[in-house]
Amino acid sequence: MQSPVSNLQYPISNLQSPLGFLTAYVPEELFHAAGFTPIFIFHTADAHGFARAHLPGFTCWVAGSALDQALAGRLDGLAGMALAQTCDTTQGLTDLWRRNVPHIPLFHFGMPLRLGSPSARAYLLAELQSLRERVQALAGRPIPDDALRESMALYNRTRALVRRLYARAALGDIAPPDLYGLVRAAFQMPKETYNQEIGSKMQELSPLPSCAPAPLLLLVGPALADPVLFDVIAQAGARVVGDLLDLGERYFAVDAVEHGDPLAALADRLLALVPTPTKHHPQRTRAAHLLSLVQERSADGVIFARQKFCEPHGFDYVQLAHALDQAGVPHLLVELEQASQAGQLRTRVEAFVEMLA
Amino acid sequence: MPRYPRLRSLKEINSVMTRYYVQRKVLARIKPLAYVTSGAPVEILEAMGVLTLYPENYGALCGARGAAVGLCQVAEAQGFPADLCSYARSHIGAVLRPSDAPLSGMPRPDLLVCCNNICGTVLKWYEALAALYDVPLFVIDVPFQRTTPAEPYVVAYVADQLREFVAWLEAHTGRRLKPNRFHSALALSREAVALWQEVLAFGQHRPSPINAPDLFVAMAPIVALRGTRRAVDCYRRLKAELEERVAQGIGAVPGERYRLLWDNIAIWYRLYRFFRPFMDAGACFVADTYTNAWTVELDLDDPFVGLARAYSGVFINMSLPTRLRIIADLARRFQVDGMVMHANRSCKPFSITQDDVRDELRDELDLPVLIIEADMCDARLYNEGAVRERVAAFLETLEML
Predict the structure, then answer these.
(1) Residue A32 lies in a domain
(2) What is the model's pTM?
């Protein structure tokens, strides 16, 4: 039977004023309120060979693929592109995009590094105001507070739906490819459509047989990793009950407050998220969050899916793995490259799942 | 083989730096010690009598002494992926196994101070150190300067954090920031930066009395001793020696034929050996983008705002158009004939846009550019044969111009 998730493809040309973005800290609502349709530019397994003329071989493919797609003309329908300040590679991509893809205007958003400090909030508010002005200039129209609040309400509904999805996943009730197909769709479809359709899609997913003694896994990594990985996990007989992926559960965990100053609401939402490894929060640590997830979901193990050459996740892995070791939680590190080595990935994931079972 | 004149001052700088490490080991028993990143506002620490040590400088030392690969492997055995920054891996390796490390490692810090104006990697490195040592960490966020000059609210954000930093230091050390000592540290820092700028400007002479590998040795005090009298003294002596050379017409590369520009951090484990074929062909590296990082002038009127501006404006924190302007300006002022870029696997901020810098220099200034793929510390990523061939081909290109 074909999965109801498989037909959730939205080509750029079908979208109204599509605006691409990368990183897990772009305030999508601000663009939406100006009439754009924000979509995440996922990396693809195929390369057109354009990025290599501009990027050294030691650049992660999440960034490399975005530039490659842009230079190949695959993103020509985009009205703009947005990036938040996260890692050194993203910062370099900001420069390279401006120079080499001038027909798609780029918005750099200065997400602060220290999330716990009062000065960071003041700076973030100023950055949001600056972004608002720059987006207004591109849209050629103002973004009224009410429009922003409406967009936040729409996005809050999406977030609530994705949280319902994860609530089912937490029970081990969704196959990993379906779960991530539906999460990924939230980044690729207009939210209006997503909110209408996804409820019924969720209903269509038949509950998985609960008797299977499937090992329960958590995933940690940058973007929504690689579809191959989700297939491999499913085929190995494991379930994913939660994650700490940059674009996964954490991204949808916090709503924006729909009353009061909308920019303050956007700022407070961004500050309240569990930080990705590119950010620093003295109190809210990723290790503590991961350990509580393990406990809450009764996870049997953790898979780290790291994009090769990703420094923030590379260092983060050591901290998190150490915390898991101390708690006696098994874990596995797999490295993803441009084209995933499905065979090798399968062997390692299968061995890990067998060990857990 | 030709012999090249050595600068006496470099020997002195090396002994000042060795003394610096040795003294830190002793003094750290009685005074608080902070590890700091190379672009941190160290004048505040200096004024408060907090000792500082630079893990990046130590990483370079590991590289130069050929100890980095072994130490990187120690870190890798603990799970640190081999494609992470080799300064970080070397230093973490030294923390984990000081017995294999130069100077038996650095003394244990009481505090960690991390400023991201040079890269984002330092955040992760310092978080790892905070976990290893279980000591407090202060992170100073200096936003990437997408437009120059920085917006007033960006400068205000950095200045606010610096004030917060002082309060944090006072709370953790029980020491006070006294205005007169702060002012004198700032003035000394300013003086050292001005002298360093003068030292760098000597490369404009023909022949140049100084070559990039000399600068990579000479830079240690401007990184590690900013805000102290010793940095000022080191550069006064170096400046005097360079003046002497100019007066006598002595070049760092006798019979200087080509003047080149270097980009990126040094290849520490091949410091002079890498440059030797260039020197033998009469090529002198008269300027570079790396040692230029410590040339931003301090405005003393409002010290916190002055520091915020200066530390936001470091080369590597600027957008590509600004960096291109700086590089083109160096190329013109120093009248260079070509550029050699080190595509340094460990330093993404320096390396990611290099292909575009090369294209710009070729197209706008008609300069030949060579890109060498290597790593600042991890010698496993250095392909001796390939480098030799590419350098020889580049030197032939210069010959034909």
Answers:
(1) yes
(2) 0.96
- Claim to verify: residue A122 and residue A182 sit in the same structural domain: no
Which residues in chain B have their CB less than 8 angstroms from residue A317's CB?
A: 79, 81
ipTM: 0.95
Chain B nearest-CA distance from A144, in A, is 23
DSSP bridge pairs for B288: B262
Residues of chain A neighbouring B127 (CB-CB closer than 8 A): 280, 315, 319
Q: A277 CA to chain B: closest CA distance, Å?
A: 8
What pLDDT, on the 0 to 100 scale, is given for residue A61? 92
A143, A171, A194: which is the final residue of a domain? A143
CATH number for the domain spanning A18: value is 3.40.50.11890
Last residue of a domain, one of A120, A143, A166: A143
Counted domains in chain A:
2
Domain assignment of residue A4, yes or no: no
pLDDT at B115: 97
Indicate whether A243 and A309 sit together in one domain. yes
Distance of CA B232 to the CA centre of its chain: 17
> Is B230 exposed, middle or buried (CB count within 10 Å of its CB: 0-12, 13-18, 19+)?
middle
User: To 10 degrees, the CA torsion angle through A22, B349, B304, B60?
Assistant: 140
Cβ–Cβ contact A77 with B under 8 A: no
Residue entry with tokens 């499913």: A234
Determine the 3-state secondary structure of A3 from DSSP. Answer: coil
Question: Are the Cβ atoms of A315 and B80 closer than 8 angstroms?
Answer: yes
Instruction: List the CATH number of the domain containing A248.
Output: 3.40.50.11900
Q: In Å, how far is A88's CA from the nearest CA of chain B?
A: 6
Nearest residue of chain A to residue B346 (CA atoms): A58
SS3 call for A173: coil
- Do A150 and A287 lie in one domain? The reply is yes
| Structural domain harbouring A253 | 146-356
Residues in chain B with CB shorter than 8 Å from the CB of A126 are 151, 153, 157
Answer for the pair B354, A56: CB distance below 8 angstroms, yes or no. Answer: yes
Torsion from C-alpha of B254, B257, B263, B264, nearest 10 degrees: -30
Distance in Å from the first CA to the final CA of chain A: 27
For residue A133, the number of C-alpha atoms closer than 13 Å in the C-beta half-sphere is 5
Cβ contact B160–A119 (<8 Å): yes
Which residue blocks in A72-110 are alpha helix, DSSP H? 88-100
Question: Does residue A24 sit in the same domain as residue A165?
Answer: no
Do residues A180 and A222 both lie within one domain? yes
pLDDT score, position A223: 77
**Distance in angstroms (rounded) separating the CA atoms of residues A117 and B164:** 9
CB contact burial B50-67 (16+ within 10 A = b; e otherwise): bbbbbbbbbbbbbbbeeb
Angle of CA points B1, B6, B10, to nearest 5°: 145
A120 and A190 fall within a common domain:
no
Quick check: is A7 in a domain?
Answer: no
Q: Is the pLDDT of residue A210 over 70?
A: no
pLDDT higher than threshold 60 for residue A68: yes
**A130 and A181 co-located in one domain:** no
Q: Chain A contact for B349, CB < 8 A?
A: yes
> What pLDDT is stored for residue A259 in this prediction?
93
| Same-domain pairing of A173 and A255 | yes
A137 burial via Cβ count (<10 Å: 0-12, 13-18, 19+)? exposed
A321 inside domain:
yes
Tokens for B210?
């100084």
Instruction: Note whether A116 contacts B: Cβ–Cβ < 8 A.
Output: no
**Test the B interface: residue of A55, A58, A96 with most B CBs within 10 Å:** A58
- Residue at token pair 């984990």: B96
Contact B306, B300 (CB under 8 A): yes
